[in-house]
Structures are given as structure tokens and as C-alpha cells.
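Troubleshooting entry. Yesterday's outputs looked truncated, so today I'm pasting the complete records for two proteins to confirm everything comes through intact. If either block looks cut off, that's the bug. Protein one:
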Amino acid sequence: MELTLLFVYALPVVTVLALGLLGTTRRLGFWGTVLLSVVLTPIGGFIATLLSGPRKANRRAG
């Protein structure tokens, strides 16, 4: 019974947070990825994060 609660409640939360960490290097960022993962399910958030592309590097002129 407790294992079922783990899969129903804890696993999706951990998955969304892990996707948020993946999103820190992408254009969406952490919170954008977390929001999309909650709205689109973690699989949809994962696909959207990968499609968003890498974050552009800030270059200083100098």
C-alpha cells in the first residue's frame, strides 16, 4: 500500500523537479520547465524542454 502512494504522489514530484534541473541549461529555465511539466505531464515537459534548445551564452565585449 505504501509503495502505491510513492508512485502516485512522490514519483511525479521528483520527476518534475528533475526536469526542472534539466531546464536550467535550456532556454525555458527551471521554473518554465517545472510549469510546463505540471501542465503537460512530465513527458510533455521533457519534450518541450529538449525542443527549447540550449541557453545562449552571455558574451562580454572586451
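Protein two, checking that the full record survives here as well:
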Amino acid sequence: MNKLEKELDVLLKINKEDVHLLSYILESEDNLANIRKYENQILRIITTSSLLDEVLKILNSLKEKIKFEIIEIKENSGSAG
């Protein structure tokens, strides 16, 4: 990862039963995103600033099959949890 590149958290509101399918799809692309934590209907995905557009493109293409809402994109605090 480039020193200028930032790690980002993409927070999704999603039903528990849809997490596995979404995780499977996103993690099938090597080094695109990491699925980190699901708590209180919020799924935390970590990606990098250079890959964010690609992650968002994939997420938007899945909205017809999987119900979720992107609620926040923010710089990762350095926490893996």
C-alpha cells in the first residue's frame, strides 16, 4: 500500500442473513476489501482509497439482489476489529 493511500471503513446497514453472501462476493476479489465486523445491523468493510470506487461500483451493482444501505465512509482508525 502506498504511504499516501488511506485505509477506509465502509459501513453498511444490512440484515444478518445477507452478510454471508455479500462477504463472499466482495472477498472473491483478491485484496479488494476486507469484511471486518457485523454488529447491530452494521457491517464494517475495510478497503483502500485507491480501491474505493471499485468497491462502490460492485456494491451498487448488488443492490437489486441484496438489501443494504451505505451509511458512512470514513478513514479507518487503525483498528482491525
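Both blocks look complete. Sanity check on protein two: Strands lie at 7-14, 34-39, 42-48, 68-75.
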